[in-house]
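Q: I have 411 residues here and want to know how they pack in 3D. Can you give me a structure?
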Amino acid sequence: MGTINKIKLYGFGVVGQGFQTYLAKNEDAKRLHTIIVKNDSKKRKNVDSIIELTNSKTIKDKDVDVILELISSSEEAYGIVAENLEIGKKVISANKKLIAENLKELIKIEKDNDATFLYEGAVCGSIPIIRVLNDLFVNEQLSEVKGIFNGSSNYILTKLFNEEISYAEALEEAQNLGYAEADPTSDVGGFDALYKLIIIAAHAFGIILKPEQVLNFGIEGISKEDIDFAKQYNLKIKLLAKAAVVGGKINLSVLPTLVSDKNELYNVENEYNGVVVEGKDIGTHFYKGKGAGSFPTGAVVYSDLKAIDANYRYSYQKLGGKSLYFDNNENVTLVLSGEDSVSLKNLESAFSSFYPLDLYGRRFIATISIKKLQNIKYDLRLKNISVLGVEDNELIEILTQTSNKNEAIAV
């Protein structure tokens, strides 16, 4: 097996520099022939590679063997990835938005041109979950994949719980450490986790969906009162991405969720990610690893390079099998809260159950289908109503008992 020699890297930010560090550690630094950047005046680490500015001639390059796309813009990344796959290149990307929005098309381009497209670094940081699903569980009938897929939001939530600082302070810390972008919308709005969930669903269940089909809520609406409520029951709030098969149908969602200390994800803190995989024959598997920062993602991108050296490709075997029916009519249990008790009470008709958790009409436990929740998502945001999922049946029972006590007191 011959080693592929020349690499062209697009983007030399946090992940790109982490990747280059792994090249150097493994005596592969000379393989990095060219680095393409937008601004060559930015302060960066010194490397021996050629630094070039982006221009119209830098996309298709037949003189290098591997293309690494590590830029932030999904629109610009599409051209880099698609055009190089079209000429049969081996391409690595960590751009989850690009992949989630265009996965079906990119797989077709890859196959039509005998190219290779790997993207382990796009999902869950240092956890090699795509390889696990694609290789180890390819013949398994999985029932659920869920987890904490975004290290930035998990870092913020950990700070809110453990240090009782404000949301703004926790976000600033995450940005200063390189865990969150200057514009944190994708991380805290639940979009980053959504893109990763779509990619995981393709490998776990053989279904490719568009981001707009899937429900997502972020953590930006979580209040101090929500934190205090969770602590009252010894719970934590985690931004939970979940794909589950129920009755032969699959549903997907991203929700800030109350979890108990019996949940594997309860102790996944700071910038760490956690993934739970459940299957009919394999039982429950739990994976934990760093999910944000230069080196965790850089390490996985480097592992993709070594996989390419070994002529590895994703099989996408489940995409050719019996397709699951996407159905977001599965019910979810939520805790809703807000300052305006009238606005909350006026929502009751949208829910199949709706019971008070306090005596002031500011917090309710309610049940609704994922599809209906998606339909009223923006109405909830406009009314500043906090939405928290409830993860397990035992916890639902405890909260329901609280509701019953409050109703009895009110009577």
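Q: Anything worth noting?
A: The chain has three domains: 7-122, 129-253+260-291+315-324, 331-410. The domain at 7-122 is CATH 3.40.50.720 (Rossmann fold).
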